[in-house]
Amino acid sequence: MAFNFIKAGFQKVKNALSKTRSLLGSKLRSIFSREMDEAALEELEQTLYEADLGVETALALTDTIRKAKRKDPSLEGDRLLELLSHETLKYMTPPKERVMTSSPHVILIVGVNGSGKTTSVVKLAKLYQSQGKKVVVAAADTYRAAAAEQLEKWLTKLGVDLVRGSANGDPASVTFDAISAAKAREADVVIVDTAGRLQTRLDLMKELEKIRRVCGKQVLDAPHDTLLILDATIGQNAIDQAKVFQEHTPLTGLILTKLDGTARGGIAIQVQKVLNLPIQYIATGENWDDFDSFDPELYVKALFE
Ligand SMILES: Nc1nc2c(ncn2[C@@H]2O[C@H](COP(=O)(O)OP(=O)(O)OP(=O)(O)O)[C@@H](O)[C@H]2O)c(=O)[nH]1
Ligand SMILES: [Mg+2]
Fold first, then answer.
1. What is the reported pLDDT for 3?
2. Among candidates 201, 213, 190, which has minimal Cα distance to 245?
3. With pLDDT > 70 as the criterion, what percentage of the chain qualifies?
4. Residues 47, 117: one domain?
5. Which residues sit opposite 190 in a β-bridge?
6. 153-206 pLDDT per residue, tens
7. Has this prediction a pTM greater than 0.90?
8. Which of the ends of the chain has fewer CB neighbours closer than 10 A, N or C?
9. With a cut of 50, which residues of the chain have pLDDT below it?
């Protein structure tokens, strides 16, 4: 049973990463099937770089292979590829185990426009619901009327409660109302969907601060999680965005979205190394079920196999 579950999870990650796998995986197989000379090592470094693992990581990993081969020239491709996976895993942070001690547990979802916040809110609500948790969602993106409607449509289908405010209302007050409702209904989790904001807009960053303060007034230590949504298809930009968000808002983790749409899935590795934040979830498609807890081991295996 457990084994089948792991196998199914692995298959899903593999499918989602098919674009990365066809680029990275096939190149790696070709490199590691040849004699590992300096030309092959250079190609390895270039390939890792192209898959968005980052310059430093690409260099460091290549150097590890170079040294291993120098130490033991009889090492074959399979063993070297295994070593590469093993070393890559060292850059990954497993997601934080979340023990929900507060009632309700408040999760704030932030990110730039179009990164996949609202979609991820719905997927996350479904995930918690499937674990038997009562969820309330706050439609704190009050800038676009369509935002709350999009949430309402999906959450009604799921049977998850949504708290909406008036159009152009104050996102902090919607958040306040949603947490009040969650307390009254004895909900376990509140997920707050916020408007897309460019990390360079100071006024919008201040607005986030206000939303956070309101959460803290309602529930001790809330928001318990502040998850930044990063679109994997924008590569290096995602990292730059995250750095600026991190300066303004304390983040607890990341959700990496649209992994199905990129051949540069190595970004997951670079993101963790540079930002020192765990990836909590990955989104791998537009369907509700294209969403999973991040498993570094499965991820690396899917990348390199
Ligand atoms: N292929 C793919 N598409 C996704 C994924 N996540 C989100 N999308 C799509 O990306 C688009 C934007 O998603 P939203 O969830 O509306 O993004 P948002 O961050 O809420 O956008 P704003 O509220 O406008 O800032 C939609 O067309 C989604 O279907 C994913 O993991 N894979
Ligand atoms: Mg949205």
1. 47
2. 201
3. 97
4. no
5. 106, 136
6. 999 999 999 999 887 889 999 999 999 999 999 999 999 999 998 888 888 889
7. yes
8. N
9. 1-3
Q: Are residues 67 and 148 in the same domain?
A: no
Burial of 202 (0-12, 13-18, 19+ CB in 10 A): exposed
Q: How far is the CA of 263 from the centre of ligand 2 (A)?
A: 25
Please report whether residue 235 resides in a domain. Answer: yes
Is residue 101 within 8 A of residue 305, CB to CB? The reply is no
Contact predicate 299/268, CB 8 Å? yes
DSSP H or E segment with residue 266: none
Cα dihedral across residues 269, 198, 162, 251: positive or negative: positive
Residues framing ligand 1 (Cβ under 6 A): 111, 113-119, 141, 147, 196, 257-258, 260-261, 283-286, 290
CA 110 to ligand 2 center in whole angstroms: 9
**Full residue range of the structural domain in which residue 232 is found:** 105-304
The rounded Å distance from CA 9 to ligand 2 centre is 27
Contact 239, 203 (CB under 8 A): no
Radius of gyration of the chain (CA): 21
- Report phi then psi at 44, rounded to 5: -60, -50
